[in-house]
Amino acid sequence: MDALYHVLISPFVDMATQPVFFAEVVIGGLMAGVMYALVALGFAVIFKASGVVNFAQGAMVLFAALTLVGFMEHGLPSWAAIPMTIVVMIALAYAIERVILRHLVNQPHIVLFMTTIGLAFVFEGLGELIWGSNVKALDIGIPDQPFFVGGMLLNQFEIFAAVTAAILVTLLVIFLQKTAIGRALRAVADDHQAAQSVGIPLQTIWVVVWSVAGFIALVAGVMWGAQSGVQFSLSLIAFKALPVLILGGFNSIPGAIVGGLIIGVGEKVAEIYWGPIIGGAIENWFAYVLAMVFLMFRPQGLFGEKIIERV
Amino acid sequence: MKRTGKLALGVLTAAAIAVGGVAAEKAAAADEEIFIPLTVYRTGPYAPNGIPIANGWRDYLKLLNARDGGINGVKIAYEECETRYDTKLGVECYEKLKNKGAKGAVVFNPLSTGISYQLIPKARVDEIPLHTMGYGRTAAADGSVFKWTFNFPATYWSQAAAFIRHIGNVEGGLENLDGKHIGLIYHNSPYGKEPIPTLETLSEQHGYELTTYPVDHPGQEQSATWLQIRRDRPDWLIMWGWGVMNQVAIKEAINIRYPMDHFIGVWWAGSEQDVEPAGAAAKGYKAGNFNGVGTDFAVLDDIVEHVYGGDMEAAKEEGLGTVLYNRGVANMLYDTEAIRTAMGKYGDKALSGKEVRWGLENLELTEARLEELGATGLVLPTRISCANHEGEGQIFVQQWDGEQWSKVTDWLEPFHDVVRPKVEAAAKTYAEENGLPVRDCSQEG
Predict the structure, then answer these.
(1) Would you call A118 an interface residue with chain B, using a CB distance cutoff of 8 Å?
(2) Which family does it belong to (chain B) (predicted)?
């Protein structure tokens, strides 16, 4: 009976009796969700173009951030280092298409997925080899002063991250919905050969898509790297994006954002109000539980396309 | 044609003799060398911590070979094996290196609690001592059960106790801890949970309230935890973190405006790497330590001279003077002095692990000896015995001033009356569970 009270009643009593703190938890969850969504967006873009989960997205975040800091450590100001890093990520996208993807046209998705696992290790190794393993501070002038609103503690950095994510999503939606390349993506994802047969330049599409994913990786790397320093563990944030994608839908840009927000709020609320009952530190796996519950009711995710195959 | 053939045969024969001679010479040299395996992690998520320690290890051994011709004239051979801080790879490294050298590996430093746990039973069978300096199984401080494992100069339990002593000192006496609220934010792993029993026992004795805040690996995202800390507002916060968890926690503490001089990290959360991402904003943050910081040690001057040819900048690029580099130097200083101690009994020659174990158990580093080594202040004088594999268990607290670490307390005595019985109880349980004999240390020579 006591246990039931702690699970079913006590958390809600706490929420009701401390509404400001509860609001702070929800806002904190939303902000964390934005950060997850920044990583998830990179996955979603590649998935839209190839139908493949890019396992290397986390490693791309690490590589992009390492490259940016590396340039800055060599004396480049951030306004020059950022475009230089974008150029590097585009060059990498080009190299990936030429060396790997071109040879895997029309291969099963699992082959492409395995390739991205290999790519993840290449990115990590290359990043360490070129830029070293030390933790590097990243400061490109993003404001990060805390401030109070109605008794709630907020941080300028979190606001900046939310605005950045909003701009990024708007740009991506316009790019994917309103441009010819964007429309071509879906055709490529559905069937490589069919897309080629109607004149869609597959190679160009892939270079563009991997470049966009590289750019998103840079944005995510900057935001996460500013929080924790740029270091190897940045590549592990991919695991924070997976439940977001499961929940939001792998091929949906708005899904990445909404999924991120739901996961962010869900895990924070669960950690604070239900975590102590079982010893705490539940947020990492709770995100996956939440995603799996959604999966049972909507296998394609909240915003994913329902795939109907007829015999 | 015939002459050419004979000539070729002659050249080949001469070459074979020469190569054979060199090989024999090398084999003879190897017979006279002591082999120390170095299980390092220079790659992977924990490389930022692993690299300076590995560099400190390597440079101290290089120094002894270059300056002194080894230990008492016996050269030291060493070989690195990459573990990536992965337990499975660590065990592979152990198996790969344990039989190398004239008489096998003489001492292993696993440099990971996970690897240590796996090697403790193996090392006992292989008769190779383990030195788990500042990590591993705390109960190994009881040498009557853990004959082959040493964890001097201090254990996690001693450190936790020393933190409470420090907090008491700052609060104006241990009696003032009554009614205080102390939080522990910890890596949600066996390592992170190590201090909890000690802190709980001391909480009962001194009347402070203890609240624990677990953080899941790797700790890249901790906002929920810090919301709770902001709500609870503990008077003091102790952190048992590792890797990225440390950097994020320090940033989060700054974000919630937690008083940084009331925030104390474990000695694995007190390197330059941990605070540099936050930089000057982390000013005031404290951490435990058991080795001197900075470059003001004669032994480091010797490293610069003999290993780096006088190039201080090159040495600093390898980490010289940083917390973890100095810890690596201290680690090898302990191990090589134990080898020297063993040589006092077994002679100046290549030794076996069994012989070096005796050296570790009879190690006595006096103030005078440390001065000879140029390591006064780098480590404390230490005396190891059959029963006590931890030594004095003293640590000090250092503080980040925005640019560097500075020692801000004297060496702090842990609560031996609390810690030692816990160590003995845990060791006894381990002995019972594993069917191990308990040595009668009063009978050991």
Answers:
(1) no
(2) Belongs to the leucine-binding protein family.
Q: ipTM, 2 decimals?
A: 0.89
> How far is the alpha carbon of B45 from chain A, nearest alpha carbon, in Å?
5
Angle CA A222–A227–A233, to nearest 5: 80
Task: Mark yes or no for CB contact A32/B48 under 8 Å.
Answer: no
Size of interface A-B (CB pairs under 8 A): 107
**Segment B248-303, tens digit of pLDDT:** 999 999 999 999 999 999 999 999 999 999 989 999 999 999 999 999 999 999 99
- Are residues B144 and B390 in contact, defined by beta-carbon separation less than 8 angstroms? no
Tell me the chain B residues in contact with residue A135 when contact means C-beta distances shorter than 8 Å.
Answer: 48, 247, 273-274, 276-277
SS3 A295: helix
Give pLDDT tens digits for B12-63. Answer: 555 555 555 555 555 555 568 999 999 999 988 889 999 999 999 999 999 9
Judge contact between B188 and B214, C-beta under 8 A: yes
Q: What range defines the domain where residue B105 resides?
A: 30-154+297-383
CATH of A2-297, one of 3.40.50, 1.10.3470, 1.10.10, 3.40.1000: 1.10.3470
How many other CB atoms are there within 10 angstroms of residue A164's CB atom? 17
| B379, part of any domain | yes
Measured between beta carbons, the chain B residues lying within 8 angstroms of A35 are 221
Interface of A with B in 131-170 (CB under 8 A): 133-139, 144, 146, 153, 155
